[in-house]
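Render this sequence as a predicted structure.
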Amino acid sequence: MKADSTTTILRACGIGKSFPGVQALAGVDFDLREGEVHALVGENGAGKSTLARIIAGVDRPEAGRMELYGRPYIAANRAYAEKQGVRMVMQELHLVANLTVAENIFIEKLPHKLGFVDYHELNRAATKIMEQVGLGNVDPGTPVRLLGIGQQQMVEIAAGLSRRCRILALDEPTASLTETETELLFAQIEKLKANGVGIIYISHRIEEVIRIADRVTVLRDGKVISTKPTSELSSSAIVRMMVGRDLEHEQLRHAGEVGGAALRVEELTQGDKVKNVSFEVCRGEILGVAGLMGSGRTETMRAVFGADRADAGEIYLYGQSEPARIGSPQDAVRNGIAFLTEDRKEQGLLLSLPVRANISLMRLRDTSRFGWMDVSCERSVADRYVDAISIRCSSIEQTVAELSGGNQQKVVIAKWIYKDCDVLIFDEPTKGIDVGAKFEIYNMLGDLADKGKAVIFVSSDLKELMAVCDRIMVMSAGLVAATFGRDEWSREKIMAAALSEYATA
């Protein structure tokens, strides 16, 4: 795609920023034109989000200067930036859980009459913007806390699109979205471009970048490696600049020997979100779970793990004839089930604790003696996993809150791998993780299956499911619509199954 205008909205020169033990940005130059999408790509910790946050006034730079339409631009805070028409939809959600969808979308400018919120007008305006991003079936009066993480992501995006702006920064906007929702977002981006808005687009999905962006800036270790028109780049060229090596020929999973059933679920039901779901996953197998946002994928896994109480159904483990009693996550873990949640910030980590403490959290008995933490043992465990899955941190003493989103995700993965459960449920494990690290995660899942673990891999990315899994179960409107073996599936078949129950509803 080519931008129609060559007018420069924003110019940033020599931007520098550091965090404890990390040089996040070092002399970065960047510019954005009217009506273009300028993508920022790079590995986790490369500085992409930091640069966008500085432009949006969320963080302050330590060096460099910026101009907005040729005039000095000093974004002292986010409120000032937004007054100048510079907005950002961040990777980590910033919604108010107890407020409604409509209230979150228009939280800065609630319509009112005689000093009271005009909820009729509020819900009418919210419904209009919600329909544009695929939330037309959601009541605008629904509290945000009742939505799934993917729907919450769309609410965040809707809030960003609802406000007039000159610059809109989108940080991993499609991380929790399926192809259908992504298409709706891209349509809105095209409308913004036509109105002259400049889009800063951060994504680890290189195919998206090639499709949506006019120019691409590649960052590595806080420095600009290259800025080029997308028309001059290929996916492999971008990846090579990002990670410093070619990943095209890296080995993905080859199916190994599959054992007996490790987990068998029969007629699992939970409200209207999970309807008589039955499936099994065997030792040595990776079972993929696909489906549209709101299809019941996450709700099913939460019910299996005991995080949500099921209304009916049975769970059988390791070939036993009697169903397991799983009424809580503690019960699930005691039965050898691990669950890597897609909401790492709220449910997967203790953000104020260091990396070492988060990794060892699930096996405290092994890293303590006589009731006291054995710090040397804890450090040894943490060092091993930091190296094994390339967690980028200044040290294992760094608090997890200071890590990039992708590196936080790696800490969650390390925690559960260290726990050494027999059944591992990974819900969107590559969300917010760069392409190089994704291959590491794929190989890690394969290694776990090769060791006889049963792996359930929930993902919105069909390409990675088809590359990694042995079978793919497709959910639609709370039901299992189809299950495909490796020699049976295709993108078209999976998408048709994902839409099947909605088409007949």
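Summary. The chain has three domains: 8-243, 259-336+421-505, 349-420. The chain has a mean pLDDT of 87.
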